[in-house]
Amino acid sequence: MISTDALVIGAGPVGLFQVFQLGLLDIKAHVVDSLPYVGGQCIELYPDKPIYDIPGTPHCTGRELVASLLRQLTPFTPPFHLEQEVSVVEKQPDGRFHVETSRGTHFLAKTIFLASGVGAFQPKKLRVEGLDRFEGSQLLYRVGNTSDFAGKDVLVVGGDDTALGWAMRLATLDADQPKSVTLLHRRDVFQADADMVLMIEALREGGALQFKVGQVTAYEESGGQLTAALVTDVDGNIAPLPADTLLVMQGLSPKLGPVAGWGLDMERKQVKVNTATFATSIPGIFAVGDINTYPGKKKLILSGFHESALAAFGAAEIVFPGKETLLQYTTTSPRLHKLLGVAPDTPPA
Amino acid sequence: MISTDALVIGAGPVGLFQVFQLGLLDIKAHVVDSLPYVGGQCIELYPDKPIYDIPGTPHCTGRELVASLLRQLTPFTPPFHLEQEVSVVEKQPDGRFHVETSRGTHFLAKTIFLASGVGAFQPKKLRVEGLDRFEGSQLLYRVGNTSDFAGKDVLVVGGDDTALGWAMRLATLDADQPKSVTLLHRRDVFQADADMVLMIEALREGGALQFKVGQVTAYEESGGQLTAALVTDVDGNIAPLPADTLLVMQGLSPKLGPVAGWGLDMERKQVKVNTATFATSIPGIFAVGDINTYPGKKKLILSGFHESALAAFGAAEIVFPGKETLLQYTTTSPRLHKLLGVAPDTPPA
Q1: Chain-centre distance of CA B295, in angstroms?
Q2: Chain B residues with beta carbon closer than 8 angstroms to that of A340
Q3: CATH topology of domain A125-250
Q4: Which residue of A has its CA nearest to B45?
Q5: What is the pTM of this model?
Q6: Number of H helices and number of E strands within chain B?
Q7: Is A211 on the interface with B (CB under 8 A)?
Q8: What is the mean pLDDT of chain B?
Q9: How confident is the model at residue B349 (pLDDT cuts 50, 70, 90)?
Q10: Sign of the CA dihedral B119, B125, B128, B133?
Q11: Chain-chain contact of B332 with A49 (C-beta, under 8 angstroms)
């Protein structure tokens, strides 16, 4: 059980800046995110696309913004608990929240910051009736160990860099090789890097992997085991493709997730907050960034930054009860210079 | 008379970002500021001091922040009307505002953005009873033309870079020289660049200027003309110093100025706004940054950035009546790319 002043849910740009703002008030935080890396949408949806409206940054990519925010919060770098979603939130008699994640991490948190944007990013599921009962055994959305595929007829479903990358990796393992690797995509055009496509082409010509165009529309089983995917091609013809493991990589999409069941006041799937502290209807839970709503709300990263600053002051009233937290400036405050680990007038190392 | 969609009062960081946010909505702006340069407090109070809490910018000086914001608003660079304060604001029958400045510039503006921070920076006055009636003739707080000092006994009052710089300049003119230049400061230590102090020292040794320690506490006049300053030294002795022109440069301090008389709802010298659009109590006038107040307000630059974004949307309803203004993203919107002058996925030149 991890005790913490603050638990930030979501490691996107606003969650990261929330940690920085909490740090300036000497509030320690842990961070949970569903993705295996920090950065949220910026990394998942537009790592290399330009952003022009971060104030004082005329141009940066999503990846660069995340790198800058991580550099900025260095003095307060929190423990990150990645690849897990919050599954349980229960208020305790002492006012703290017991939080449990999908990986079994437990927290006792004085305050919670919902910075989960459009929601937790989840793999897009293969929608074939009945198939979901194989999830975790013969139907996988992520790779744990490559040795899990040893001796298997593997069908990799997808057409982006991630799908092609894993098809290539599995087709070229040194040990514990699969029996066969087939890449299946609904079109014969990939949404992937040109070099990656060339490498897949070379592997295919060399016979190390197969490529099929089509979609999984049904499956065959025998003795409770998945034995083949039934693939419908562009002409509507259906043919079985022997497979005992499906690795489905059709990208990620955000899901609001269990937040909807916490009893928070919501409006159109957004969490209602007051604009003084960005507190939700449950005292101790704050919501910042794209997940919240209030009159005038615009889903802008720069608004999330402002919200996180005011939310930190809201949390200070709970973390340091009865103590007034005054606004100090990073330019002049010796206390903040100490927290930031900088000498006055000296840039950080 | 200048017609404009928006008039931004204050060219500090928030005023500059306000112009950028208006630009993204295709709203053209003019900017007025009391200082002779843009940047406001960032330049006037901490040009070389570090700021650590601009989101995504781990460290910058006031000067660097202003430079970045100017670079960011390049596609929308507005006409700047500097060294003048707004003196008159009158609502016209057609809903626009007639605005006049201390330099006689006239505007007809559909919307006004108060981004004037702690107020217009004004020269600190020399507090000597009766002396103010010479202001503009024999008592000056700024230099218009150096030739105004030709043949005069000039007393420069102050001890910072600006005061020393002007004393040096007047003592070394090629033409229209003053009869004499005396620098007066209350202490014999200057708050100025070491090189500047050395140059003043050299001029003093060469006899090109005099230096006295003391304060002007009274004056002498003859026939309605100022003839001498009465200077009290550190020991309390009073002596006349012949002078027919006083150039007083004791630094600047902010004054809220005539805003107080516009009829805006105020609270403790701050302008009350709603947090949906940062509109004031007068429709068409918005207030952003340190000048405004609302529940939870913190005087942070990053809050001003958020406020200016929402205020721009508030103004769009007035500038483009009956047209809904949708939020678009600089990362993806072809319309914004066109306004910003960038091709998709390409950084600006």
Answers
A1: 28
A2: 52
A3: FAD/NAD(P)-binding domain (3.50.50)
A4: A331
A5: 0.80
A6: 7, 22
A7: no
A8: 93
A9: very low
A10: negative
A11: yes
